[in-house]
Amino acid sequence: MAYTPTREDFDRYMVPNYAPQKVIPVRGEGSRLWDQEGREYIDFAGGIAVNSLGHCHPVLVNALREQADKLWHLSNVYTNEPALQLAKSLVERTFADKAYLCSSGGEANEAALKLARRWAHDTHGAHKDKIISFRQSFHGRTFFTVSVGGQPKYSQGFGPVPGGILHAEFNNLDSVRELIGDDTCAVMVEPMQGEGGILPATQEFLEGLRELCDAHDALLIYDEVQSGMGRPGTLFAYMRYGVIPDILTSAKSLGGGFPVGAMLTTEAIAKVFTIGTHGSTYGGNALASAVALAALETIDTPEVLEGVQRRHELFREHLGAINSQYGVFQEVRGMGLLIGAQMAPQYEGRAKDILPLAIEEGVMALVAGPNVLRMAPSLVIPEEDIVEGMARLERAVARFVENA
């Protein structure tokens, strides 16, 4: 007899570190999804900024199918053509000279942090080991990255955290000046904080970080796992600011839904990662690389990148109209198609309460912390889907306000 999984099976069989919504999507096309009962949803969540080209985009599906008939996995005892093609394309489109491929954003950030420490050790000595990050930042779930991230709730209860990690205040250069010194090996920052509330860095802040890192011979690491790959309306957010990092990490939208990550850096820094210093079993996997290359080549086009800003304005227009009617938001912010709506003071900490109502109305959204409603849809979401999805979201907001 055929077995159809239910939401109750999650509670029965899965480790309880997630609390998924009650519906189980089973099919997707573009920016729409259908659940087990055939009910349709408009997707403003995008798999948490992952589904950069929506669901089952034909270019990605074709890339996966073609590669699936050729080669899946070799390990890094060998290299493969898709991995080399992806690395070449990433290097040629960015500041970087070298690429390291892995399976996730957490892995990419782990590699970036280890690279920075190894570079400082080999270049200056063991004393230069301090890493500065920022409060409310998020860099992954490995023990190193969760410790560098500026949200203690994610590292509490797991024992002593790694040493040499300091946290400054985002968009506050003075707080960095108080911490940085000649023992600093790196400053790690999200050009736009994602999990911390969809907060873009100011131009002055990133320029100041670059100057401070140069003055103290420290590396500037950009975590663009969530903010990159077309989401800001440029291929990476650093291109909007014109402030170039030493190391950059990417994942999420890079694979369009297929697990993949990348770390990009310069020749001078990359050379300290000699044979055996770091690795990833699935890094450079042929299937993942083929899909990521197809996503990269599709996203990095004027048609897609220019369309991101048009869609951004449409989201803002509709969120403004909802707010004019219901007064539920204090501020709408973000870049491109990573948008956050901060809750008004009377609804402080209640962003998550909108999500189940939105599902009931047929639209999927996210939160970024307890106080920000987040939207990270496909970069090519049809404008009519934005309009319809916003109409559904407005109904959810109306119910939220009525029952608040």
UniProtKB/TrEMBL annotation:
Single annotated GO MF: N2-acetyl-L-ornithine:2-oxoglutarate 5-aminotransferase activity
Main location per the UniProt record: cytoplasm
Cofactor needs: pyridoxal 5'-phosphate
Gene Ontology annotations for the cellular component aspect, listed alphabetically: cytoplasm
Record Gene3D superfamilies: Aspartate Aminotransferase, domain 1, Type I PLP-dependent aspartate aminotransferase-like (Major domain)
EC number: 2.6.1.11
UniProt keyword annotations, A-Z: Amino-acid biosynthesis, Aminotransferase, Arginine biosynthesis, Cytoplasm, Pyridoxal phosphate, Transferase
Binding site for N(2)-acetyl-L-ornithine: R141, S280
Cofactor comment: Binds 1 pyridoxal phosphate per subunit.
InterPro entries to which the protein is assigned, alphabetical: Ac/SucOrn_transaminase_bac, AcOrn/SuccOrn_fam, Aminotrans_3, Aminotrans_3_PPA_site, Class-III_PLP-dep_AT, PyrdxlP-dep_Trfase, PyrdxlP-dep_Trfase_major, PyrdxlP-dep_Trfase_small
Pfam families: Aminotran_3
Modification sites for N6-(pyridoxal phosphate)lysine: K252
An example Gene Ontology biological process: L-arginine biosynthetic process
Subcellular location: Cytoplasm
Pathway(s) this gene product operates in, as recorded in its UniProt entry: Amino-acid biosynthesis; L-arginine biosynthesis; N(2)-acetyl-L-ornithine from L-glutamate: step 4/4
Catalysed conversion reaction: N(2)-acetyl-L-ornithine + 2-oxoglutarate = N-acetyl-L-glutamate 5-semialdehyde + L-glutamate
Positions with a binding annotation for pyridoxal 5'-phosphate: F138, D223, E224, V225, Q226, T281
Superkingdom of the organism of origin: Bacteria
Protein family: Belongs to the class-III pyridoxal-phosphate-dependent aminotransferase family. ArgD subfamily.
Subunit and partners: Homodimer.
PANTHER family, alphabetized: AMINOTRANSFERASE CLASS III (PTHR11986), SUCCINYLORNITHINE TRANSAMINASE (PTHR11986:SF113)
Misc note: May also have succinyldiaminopimelate aminotransferase activity, thus carrying out the corresponding step in lysine biosynthesis.
Protein name: Acetylornithine aminotransferase
Native organism: Modicisalibacter ilicicola DSM 19980
